[in-house]
Amino acid sequence: MVGDRDGGQLADEVEDVGDRGAHARRLGVAADAVAVTRAGPVDAALTDLADLLARSSSESRASRFLTGTSRTPGPRFVRRLLDVPGGGALLARVGGEAVGHAMWAPVPGRETDEGPAVEVALLVRDDHHRRGVGARLLDELGAWLLEVGVLRVRVTTLASNAGVLALVRRDAPDASIVRDGPELTFTLDLHRVVARRSH
Question: From which domain of life does this come (predicted)?
């Protein structure tokens, strides 16, 4: 289902941009080289996340936070990315360095008969794009959400974000889509996503 009056055209655009992301060369990192842990606002995690954000490109930061700004977030904002009321955060490390961050948080007013709906977000450092870090974060995030009873997940991204669109197209081709200017919001059935990723 596409929640947009130009639904057919929008779905075609998602497919076209997703193709570009799916065809990008995958460099690969050994699965056991990526350590993913649940993270809270403790000193080590705060330092690691601040370093990850500082070493990410301005384009990646602007795409992640949908703010139109390329500024590196300050300490208070970094803390908010790890201290998530009703939700949680993950850090991915390779060789002891933080190279990825994921978080989830309840969507206000979106409690349904199927349980809570949550929004998820992901950032991978530029030099670790297409190396499997995002996939590991998503797998751990999916397991965590199922553990706490979440069935519906919302993802908001820029329409130009080929990497996210490729993931949605591959793992959640039946997701609903709503467009708001340059942003796309997908609502995913988590059980279906996890089932597809396990094959």
Answer: Bacteria
